[in-house]
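Appendix C: a fully annotated inverse folding record. The material below is reproduced so that readers can follow the format used throughout the book. The structure is listed first as tokens, followed by the designed sequence.
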């Protein structure tokens, strides 16, 4: 159905590479410790085999252990080139496959109106948990930019602030969550947006015995959203979100009229130009909010009986919001 699968995959915010990067720093110290405590012990395949599930359980082992040979060249010089290294890698793969097959996936929905902070906090959750954030908005924008069939269908309705048809977005998500980087879980941003989409999601997850594990609702009154939306600038390829007042890029310069100079708006990390979304206008926001209250909010009632909905006060400074998001993620 979708000829644009690879474009869509590329568009979803920071996919497998991010998961790798996000767990690698946490994992390297653990992995280093294991090696430094005794390469002879580490060479003991049985020891590692027993340790791996524990490391995996904390979400750090897959990359960390596979990096041992590169990050700890000195300690593992003999090990890397030995047969046991291959056995270790096989054991890692075996354990990884086992967890992918039998462990429940962490499936969460980042929920909230336009401008609530889904795109602001989603990447931080992604970094924390090492699972990808899947933004249907980003995927659709990539499809529009690439002028795929899906993109052509979605373009006008998105610009006006309406909702793209359920079958298109359900199809996108169905394909995307089958990708390898989603096997331990994923964060949905902007999906589901209607009850029909929520039911379709539940059905596709039920087919593998899975279900949504958490819904994090970012609550913000409508009145504050216009300022957030109209002041937003984004870095197209990464999805990084800036704001002229609340989160300005380091490069921002202000003109005599008090407004930011467009040419000075650059991404902090890459130095590439930032852009404003065509639907980030006051008039499109009215329609987006209507859609949110009428079509999307009822989804909360759909998931509430499962006890998985956590509400966060997103009408406070970003650090405060992030603190509450962290609380809502924890098992307590
Ligand atoms: P989508 O891309 O999903 O847009 P959205 O839901 O409207 O959400 P936004 O991305 O606008 O808001 P956000 O919560 O990510 O805000 P951010 O963190 O950037 O969807 C776009 C369109 O695609 C839809 O309208 C629809 O047409 C279509 N679509 C997508 N999914 C669909 C689906 N499932 N079904 C049908 N159609 C679909 O924050 C905003 C700004 O505020 C930023 O500048 C940020 O710096 C700032 N900010 C954030 N937090 C704070 C804070 N605490 N204090 C001050 N400023 C803050």
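Designed amino acids, in order:
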């Amino acid at each position: 159905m979708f000829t644009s699968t690879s474009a869509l995959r590329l568009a979803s915010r920071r996919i497998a590479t991010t998961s790798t990067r996000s767990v690698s720093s946490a994992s390297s110290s653990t992995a280093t410790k294991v090696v430094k405590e005794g390469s002879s012990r580490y060479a003991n395949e049985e020891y590692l085999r027993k340790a791996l599930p524990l490391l995996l359980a904390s979400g750090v082992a897959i990359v960390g252990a596979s990096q041992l040979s590169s990050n700890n060249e000195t300690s593992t010089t003999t090990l890397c080139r030995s047969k046991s290294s291959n056995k270790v890698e096989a054991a890692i793969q075996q354990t990884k496959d086992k967890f992918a097959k039998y462990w429940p996936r962490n499936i969460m929905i980042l929920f909230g109106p336009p401008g609530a902070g889904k795109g602001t906090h989603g990447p931080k959750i992604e970094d924390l948990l090492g699972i990808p954030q899947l933004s249907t908005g980003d995927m659709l924008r990539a499809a529009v930019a690439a002028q795929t069939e899906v993109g052509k269908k979605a373009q006008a309705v998105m610009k006006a602030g309406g909702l793209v048809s359920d079958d298109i977005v359900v199809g996108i998500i169905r394909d995307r969550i089958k990708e390898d980087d989603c096997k331990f879980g994923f964060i949905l941003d902007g999906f589901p947006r209607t009850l029909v989409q929520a039911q379709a999601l539940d059905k596709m997850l039920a087919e593998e015995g899975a279900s949504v594990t958490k819904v994090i609702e970012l609550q913000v009154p409508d009145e504050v959203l216009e300022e957030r939306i109209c002041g937003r600038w984004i870095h197209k390829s990464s999805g990084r979100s800036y704001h002229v007042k609340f989160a300005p890029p380091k490069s921002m310069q202000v003109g005599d009229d008090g407004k930011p100079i467009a040419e000075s708006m650059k991404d902090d990390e890459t130095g590439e130009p930032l852009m404003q979304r065509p639907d980030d206008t006051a008039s499109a926001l009215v329609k987006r909010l209507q859609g949110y209250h009428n079509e999307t909010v009822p989804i909360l009632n759909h998931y509430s009986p499962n006890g998985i909905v956590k509400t966060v006060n997103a009408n406070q400074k970003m650090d405060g919001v992030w603190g509450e998001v962290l609380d809502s993620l924890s098992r307590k």
